[in-house]
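# step 3/5: fold
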Amino acid sequence: MTDFAIALAPEPRNGLCGMCGEAALWKKGPRVCILESGSPVCRECAQNHAPQHFALLDLAISAERVGKACKHLLTPPMESLLELNRAAETFALTFPAPLRKAA
């Protein structure tokens, strides 16, 4: 089993995905990486192999985008709030439901 981490990259980089070997362009900022080697993972592989990391990364990117676009507003527009809600729900749904004991 491969362990993953979210790493903050100081610069953009072209390279190969650590899982599938496909060429990809990674922007500056957070990205999903393989913990042992530190090699970045493309979005498709991250979504398939590390869904919790991918959902958290998507939530962080959405929050950053909304924060930059709406920093001058008192309240963000409904579109931005819905985008954040979708990302938060996706993140919440990646965790399995807790098991309950029958009373």
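# step 4/5: annotate
The radius of gyration is 16 Å.
# step 5/5: archive (pending)
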